[in-house]
Description:
The chain is built from ten helices and nine strands. The protein is α+β, with helices and mostly antiparallel strands and about 425 residues long. The N and C termini lie far apart (about 115 Å). Pathway: Protein modification; protein ubiquitination.
Amino acid sequence: xxxxxxxxLFDKEDEEGYGxxxxxxxxxxxxxxxxQELMKKHNDTNDSNTNxxxxxxxxxxxxxxxxxxMKLEQSGHLYEAIxxxxxxxxxxxxxxxxxxxxxxxxxxxxxxxxxxxxxDQDEILDDDLVTHFQKLQIDHRKICQxxxxxxxxxxxxxxxxxxxxxxKWVVSPDLDIKQLEILSEVSRGFHICARDDGIWRQIxxxxxxxxxxxxxxxxSWRNMFINRPHVLFNGCYISRTSYxxxxxxxxxxxxxxxxxxxxxxxxxxxxxxxxLMMSSSEDPYTTLSKLRSQSTREQGxxxxxxxxxxxxxxxxxxRVKTKDSxxxxxxxxxxxxxxxxPNDMEQTFQVEMEIQNHKDRCHAKLVWLHYSxxxxxxxxxQLNETDFELNNKNYPPLLFSRVLSYTAESxxxxx
Length: 415
């Protein structure tokens, strides 16, 4: 068997006639081609890097123009700001999103949703506007900006501490939270001042007193006041009850008179723990003005104290003594000693209600849970306790109604 023959490069008898000199020249040509290919690849890489470096330069120029437009807009030069906005958008159509995305990340808040802190840039914009507003930080130099020129001092000149003190006057010890929320809609600076953690902490302390507790399951003091059950103070809880009553008999046997009796029940709560309760057949517009002050004395008025127990409120009430028109106006004349009336008695009412939401209104509904009266006869000291039968017909739930006159004036700030 013949061995396979492998031709050698240095074989002189090769049919194509390759020699050592030709081989060296081919190797040299191969090296030159290889170097040229490497140089070409290196140049292509440099060109791509150069193009890549040019892209951030355009973006930085667009950012510069956009930020300059923002400064002009803040200073009131809107037309000049629009010019720079157009140039920035022409260079990069997504420059607005990139500018906001490159801002600071939101700082982790400890207890409050927003606080009055040092000067800060805008936080990252979120799709949820509520979340974005909660993360805003106030700028001490710009609480608000005046829209029109005026000769007098504008409120934007006031320091933040003084503005918050004014807000406490708005809230007042009567806890007019509605006015505080309306005030927060004036400007961004007012919105952040109205969310000050110190104000809402004082509001919670005045509402629950020693039982306020700590922030554990609530994000902030404002969140506690909104979500924790409590009664509303800037108005009155009202219910309407009606029943049929037999009238007086007449000579006509075919006619039986019936009367439809309608009356209203009112409950007014004060932040210091005082409660007023009254039933009247008069129009609510007439009766509500009588419950404006704690010192009012009306026939059938009950006055006492209340306290919270979770979503329930318990109270103990007594009848308010009214002035007797039959009083003796001649004190110098000695009167004979009067004997104790055996029918003279003192009544104490115990009321327990459950605080509920009504439609989209929080804590605007009170439902009866317990209602009883304890009668003490002064002559004998005997005590009688009576429980009222509760049903939706005779004791319907009370719904809250805001009364503007209750918080029309403020006598002192919130403390």
